Amino acid sequence: MVGIPYDQRDGFIWLDGKLTPWAEATLHLLSHGLHYGGAVFEGERMYDGEIFKLSEHSERLVESARILDFEIPYTVAEIDQACRDVVAANGLTNAYVRPIAWRGSEQMGVAGQNNTVHLGVAAWDWGSYFDPAARLKGIRTTFAQYRRPDPATAPSKSKAAGLYMICTIEKHRAERLGYADAVMLDWRGYVAEATGANIFFVKDGVLHTPEAWAFLNGITRRTVIDLARKRGIEVVERLIKPEELTDFTECFITGTAAEVTPVSEIGEYHFEVGEISKTLVNDYLNLVHPQQRAVAAAS
Ligand code: PMP
Q1: Residue 297 alpha carbon to ligand 1 centre in Å
Q2: Fold (topology level) of 132-288
Q3: Using one digit for the tens of pLDDT, what is the confidence trace for 52-97?
Q4: Can you name the CATH fold of 6-124?
Q5: How far away, in angstroms, is 196 Cα from ligand 1 center?
Q6: Is 159 a known active-site residue?
């Protein structure tokens, strides 16, 4: 389903310090970031007028760029403000926010130190990442063919555009086969994550999740671990072999876009949308909505 193309919408995009009319937020063909993958981005969600964990996202953006050996010419506070300005300029209170930084077009070739670093922030209304019914019945996924690369091979801790190349290939393959997403193993063959979200499993009331050192340690992942521990649910971070999936009764994925989404199937393994998944879906939604948070704090 394709709506209005993303280059033809109304509103404003924050580009290099200025709120720019949406259609004018363009870059040149000979941008280093486009040719050599020198681009890092964030995905944030604003709920009821508040961007959830905004500064953590801005900090990760700055760090992602440093890992790729470039410096964003704005502070974390300035990036936070750019995100707030862009949602305000577009009159949004519930939105997805997308900051992106990239190397410009002063220098071509593999070396790119002399390029200006640009920063843009766009925001738009983006509903549920998966079919909303998925929260009740879970999404069907398949195993990916590509694996998350060894951190010695790729800058795994950076939310770098280039690392999404294999995610897009796998997401396409999954959708072609009738699945909602693909679950990737790491380069050693342990369970890693989905194409845009981290993964959790439940066995005997305990949460198990892969150690996040070969992939992004998601902000949602860390939030859900805290929520589970607050509920007294034990959380174990460890290496998980695909054959172990037969022992798990529940599975869900976590991410800013995906929020907490139950999984009913990974390849031949099946899961139920059980009590722990349902509890964490709701705890997360209550936490991210400031109005519901206030009600919970008062009660
Ligand atoms: N892994 C990948 C590959 C992702 O794209 C995302 C979404 N940014 C995540 C994990 C989850 O990260 P977060 O919870 O910070 O959004």
Answers
A1: 28
A2: D-amino Acid Aminotransferase; Chain A, domain 2 (3.20.10)
A3: 999 999 999 999 999 999 999 999 999 999 999 999 999 999 999 9
A4: D-amino Acid Aminotransferase; Chain A, domain 1 (3.30.470)
A5: 5
A6: yes
